[in-house]
Specification:
Low-confidence stretches: 1-8
Distance between the termini: 41 Å
Mean pLDDT: 95
Number of strands: 6
Structural class: alpha/beta
Order of helices and strands: HHEEHHEHEHEEHH
Shape: globular
Radius of gyration: 17 Å
Bound molecules: iron/sulfur cluster
Length: about 240
């Protein structure tokens, strides 16, 4: 496997991604991501796990900004690309492809040729957490990376939050940047449009259930439900 990562745009992106990949700020997560990478799942014993923080992936000029929770231990902690290599990613990229945001429906590794069009995928925490649960302190430590991505992407129109924790992180970030989203209760398909108090810039926030195996296997989230959310995002982009 190559040791590079996407997106590889200008110097600011390269510096940001290098800072993310080199981060060791959260001792619990550093220990866990590296332990998982050493021990591996038997099915992936021939893999060289990534075992590091995972940078954002996609189109740096995107208008759709998708925010997940954290890398999966044997998903992006193995492959080094957001939502790549596990069941959450299978569900998400298939939906992105149906909606015209992804060049292919499958996402297996960093070299599989997948590209995103007008979409960028990131997360509120960059390291795989035990039990898929980063602590509030770990998310706070990771937040500057999300903010740096946000600042590099002023063209973003729609923020799509996958899961409640990401949704709350997105609301906080938007408020910190002077936007005035209304009080919203998390739910699949919940959305709001609002402007910046300083610039008048219009943004849209959309919530969706996280495409985790737990949600898809129980039928809480179906492909049709994800399609509806991406159709909503598409319509908001055209406003
Ligand atoms: S979760 Fe974020 S802040 Fe913590 S070690 Fe990983 S990259 Fe660094």
């Amino acid at each position: 496997m190559k040791d590079d990562f996407q997106p590889v745009g200008d110097a600011a992106w390269r510096q940001l991604n290098a800072d993310i990949v080199g981060c060791r700020a959260c001792p619990r997560l550093v220990a866990w991501r590296e332990q998982v990478a050493r021990e591996k799942r038997p099915a992936y014993r021939d893999w060289e796990y990534w075992g590091r923080p995972v940078p954002g992936f996609g189109d740096p000029a995107a208008r759709l900004f998708i925010v997940g929770l954290a890398p999966g231990a044997h998903g992006s902690n193995r492959t080094g690309r957001m939502f790549t290599g596990d069941s959450s990613g299978e569900t998400l990229y298939a939906a992105l492809h149906r909606a015209g945001f992804a060049s292919q429906p499958v996402s297996r590794n960093r070299d599989d040729g997948l590209t995103l069009r007008d979409a960028f995928i990131t997360a509120v925490a960059r390291c795989a957490p035990p039990g898929n649960r980063p602590t509030p302190e770990e998310m706070a430590a990771c937040r500057p990376f999300l903010i740096r991505e946000w600042l590099l992407m002023p063209q973003v129109r729609v923020v799509l939050a996958l899961g409640q924790v990401s949704f709350e992180g997105c609301l906080r970030m938007l408020r910190d940047f002077g936007y005035n989203p209304p009080r919203l209760k998390f739910g699949h398909g919940v959305h709001a449009s609002f402007t910046s108090s300083s610039s008048g810039d219009l943004k849209h926030l959309v919530a969706a259930y996280h495409p985790s195996r737990q949600n898809t296997q129980t039928g809480r989230l179906t492909p049709a439900m994800l399609d509806e959310v991406f159709a909503l995002a598409r319509s908001l982009l055209e406003k």
